[in-house]
Amino acid sequence: MKTTINKLSEHVGKTVKIGAWLSNKRSSGKIAFLQLRDGSGFVQGVVVKSEVGDEIFAKAKGLTQESSLYVTGMVKEDERSALGVELEVTDVEVLHQAVDYPITPKEHGTEFLMDHRHLWIRSKRQHAILKIRNEIIHAVNEFFYNNDFAKVDPPILTGSSAEGTTSLFHTKYFEEDAYLSQSGQLYMEAAAMALGKVYSFGPTFRAEKSKTRRHLIEFWMIEPEMAFVEHEESLEIQEQFISHIVQSVITRCENELKTLGRDISKLENVKAPFPRVSYDDAIKMLKEKGFDDIEWGDDFGAPHETAIAESFDKPVFITNYPKDIKAFYMKPDPNREDVVLCADLIAPEGYGEIIGGSQRIDDLALMEQRYEEHGLTDDAYKWYLELRKYGSVPHSGFGLGLERTVAWISGAEHVRETIPFPRLLNRLYP
Known about the structure:
Layout: E1 15-28, E2 31-37, E3 42-48, H1 49-52, H2 54-61, E4 68-77, E5 85-96, H3 110-115, H4 117-120, H5 124-146, E6 150-151, E7 157-158, E8 170-173, E9 176-180, H6 185-195, E10 197-205, E11 218-227, H7 231-252, H8 254-259, H9 264-268, E12 276-278, H10 279-288, H11 302-309, E13 316-319, E14 332-333, E15 336-340, E16 342-347, E17 352-359, H12 364-374, H13 378-386, E18 395-401, H14 402-410
Parallel strand pairs: 3-5, 6-10, 12-13
Antiparallel strand pairs: 1-2, 1-4, 2-3, 4-5, 7-9, 8-9, 10-11, 11-18, 13-16, 14-15, 16-17, 17-18
């Protein structure tokens, strides 16, 4: 019976065949222990010379790291294994004998591993992180499907910026200038006026010359937009969304979290509702924590976000930032013109902002005023202005950075480990 490693526990006491790669091996006299992987998981195969004979045992002992093979054996229970089973090998068929595999069990530098990222993702730790990424993607789509959101795909090539910034990748679109999208938000607002509740899930690009552990040049964003939803309701949806993602990973990625040594107790507490701190109070908190230079009107950097998050054991919303440091489309607080109806969700344990969201301006005259203040051209943004001209409604939205979320939930130190092939300031290979 042919199967995969993640299904072995369903076949205890039976003889099965798996296709696998040899991630490592060790031998003790007349027994060889093969560490096997097949993409679905890792398992130990035990080869006993007295049971398989000289030829098969010699073949097993001669295997090199990352050789590919078919392995036949009896599935046996083993409490020491993360899967609860091991494979008592009866036959080995070598498909390809790898020679001089460059990533050995010894320590390697980060740059070396990044140069060999196409091979590094085979390792147990990287496998675990990418499996958690996959589960987060599944949980995202599951949450929105179950809550009647429609998935809409905005364009990647655009004629303008979503937030009026210059950190864009420029290209030619035949005879016109075009840019790689840094956000699908504006298009999602248009989609929300047609479909009510929508979300996008796609790549975005930001030409920021940043080398921090939280930044990538190419990353994936989840961007919901919701018609007839105001700021407070949006916050409630966000905390339900994050709670669903985290609890899904805890439930479905137990082995991967153990592989990474993740403290699951810190994740188990991530359930709605989340604490909320106004920008005004956040400034006071930072001054009390020794950030004497921070003043009202300043934006927060990574050290500020980390300091605020330290006071809480779950993600925290920082709400109502000053209007002048936020995007042109954010709706002013009706009770206070100098701040906007927005919130950043800060992850605990120093992982920083994972969500930025706001209620959007729905008043045509105010949006026209914003256009003038920010120097936005009618040609590039005419269609966006028309959303306020033809059936405008209160609406809100937010953006979740996938890689930062993976880093937080998996406990990865740097976002470069949370995407299969990261694009960094000085890295376009492999």
